[in-house]
Design goal:
10 helices; Thrombin, subunit H; 6-stranded antiparallel β-barrel; Pdz3 Domain; alpha+beta
């Protein structure tokens, strides 16, 4: 009986395997039921001629040990003169956005320090280009070249993008030549990453690798929705987390560069911070989102409009505010002279205020800390409305750039710095005086919530 069962099982198994065998010469059909299968090829044939490869050559100053600058040291050890500069080269991508004027959008970091820029078109032509202008704070640059029969990409409103929309990234990864990858939009309005000074990124899982910077992010209609700019990676390779600058932002920056040769930042004259759990409890807040105004500069646009320390920003122009970085981006990316509508919370009541955006002036509240150890750190006096006000003397950390030396050492936003190199500091002036002494390390005592600790920031 068992032998009969084994023979029956073997026969069924052979039959099943035979049923699923696929001929080695099988291939996907080009059409099904008389209709062609979906393909991105027709769209890409129209789009790829507008995406260019960019090669640059430049020079940067070469760092040297102070000993090599000493004539006696070089003479004694018979060390020849060292070059103070070295040549650099880079590869990236760009997008033609105006075929008549030969305008190309790319990233600022692609053309930084460039003294010669060569643009290679899809048809193989190589054209010299010049820099019209750039904005390092958003990583946008505008190039101009002279050539016939150029193709420009049509742009669309990037504010209409949704998470889950299909997109295609086109660029020149690793210098291999024009390459296309596809994916979806994973998130919108990404900020606080520490990649750029002002961030409002589109996040996508379409592969963006070194060399893709400045390339095009397009929708399935072939419309330009963003400029590829960065990846989030610890190894340098793509892990499905790429970032692009929304085309609406890129075009606003480009128009300012073309009109005035520079980008003028919007300015309100407020200092803001995130709402920590301690602050939420102190202000009796049930909401976690929003940003707290802790200082209003006298005679600033914010002061004239009626904003006060202790006000909580809920939304700007109808868009909800998640944190202090959201407010900073909304203001800094607006053109000078534009009016914006704030929804605020004061003493438990919501109300609206309209503020006129002014140009950044020397009165801007950010202190100019000259110590490189604190690069990317913004501090202020502790203002009325803060739970630390009247309890602790020191300065409050408003913002800190992720990945900066201070951030890596453990300093965080909302920390209160109470001493520098064992010397107590009471206010912003004392802090600036203490940290500007150009020492090789800073020993900071900080208060964080109900905890106090020391951190060391070294070169």
């Amino acid at each position: 009986m068992i032998d009969i069962f084994r023979k029956l099982f073997s026969t069924l198994l052979f039959a099943a395997c035979s049923f699923f065998i696929v001929p080695t010469n099988a291939a996907l059909p080009q059409e099904q039921d008389g209709k062609e299968l979906p393909s991105l090829a027709p769209m890409l044939e129209n789009v790829t001629p507008a995406v260019v490869n960019i090669a640059t050559e430049g020079r940067v100053k070469q760092r040297q040990s102070p000993l090599f600058s000493d004539p006696f040291f070089r003479h004694f050890f018979k060390i020849p003169d060292q070059p103070v500069e070295r040549k650099t080269s880079s590869l990236g991508s760009g997008v033609i956005v105006d075929s008549k004027r030969g305008l190309v959008l790319t990233n600022n970091h692609v053309i930084a320090n460039a003294i010669q820029i060569t643009v290679t078109l899809r048809d193989g032509r190589q054209v010299e280009a010049e820099i019209v202008g750039s904005d390092p704070e958003t990583d946008i640059a505008v190039l101009k070249m002279t050539a016939e029969n150029l193709t420009a990409l049509t742009t669309t409103d990037s504010d209409d993008l949704r998470v889950g929309d299909f997109v295609v990234a086109i660029g020149n990864p690793f210098g291999l030549g024009q390459t296309v990858t596809s994916g979806i939009i994973s998130a919108l309005s990404r900020s606080g990453l520490g990649i750029e000074e002002y961030e409002d990124f589109i996040q996508t899982d379409a592969s963006i690798n070194p060399g893709n910077s400045g390339g095009a992010l397009v929708n399935l209609k072939g419309e330009l929705v963003g400029i590829n700019t960065a990846i989030f990676s610890q190894s340098g390779a793509s892990h499905g987390i790429g970032f692009a600058i929304p085309i609406n932002l890129a075009l606003r920056i480009m128009e300012q560069i073309l009109d005035t040769g520079e980008v003028k930042r919007g300015f309100l004259g407020v200092s803001i911070q995130d709402i920590s759990p301690e602050l939420a409890e102190a202000f009796d807040l049930t909401r976690k989102n929003g940003a707290l105004i802790n200082k209003v500069l006298k005679d600033s646009p914010a002061d004239k409009a009626g904003l006060l320390p202790g006000d909580i920003v809920i939304s700007i122009d109808g868009k909800k505010i998640r944190n202090a970085n959201d407010v900073r981006n909304r203001i800094g990316l607006l053109p000078v002279g534009e009016k914006i509508k704030f929804k605020l919370l004061r003493d438990g009541k919501e109300f609206d205020l309209v503020v006129l955006v002014d140009e950044v002036t020397e009165k801007e509240i950010k202190p100019k800390v000259s110590n490189d150890l604190l690069k990317g750190v913004t501090v202020s006096d502790i203002q009325k409305g803060s739970p630390y006000f009247g309890r602790i003397k020191g300065v409050l950390v408003l913002e800190i750039q992720r990945g900066s030396r201070a951030w890596t050492s453990g300093l965080r936003a909302n920390d209160v710095i109470t001493s520098v190199n064992k010397n107590p500091i009471k206010n912003l002036d004392e802090f600036l005086s203490a940290v500007d002494k150009k020492e090789d390390a800073l020993l900071l005592r900080i208060v964080r919530g109900n905890m106090a600790t020391f951190i060391v920031i070294k070169k």
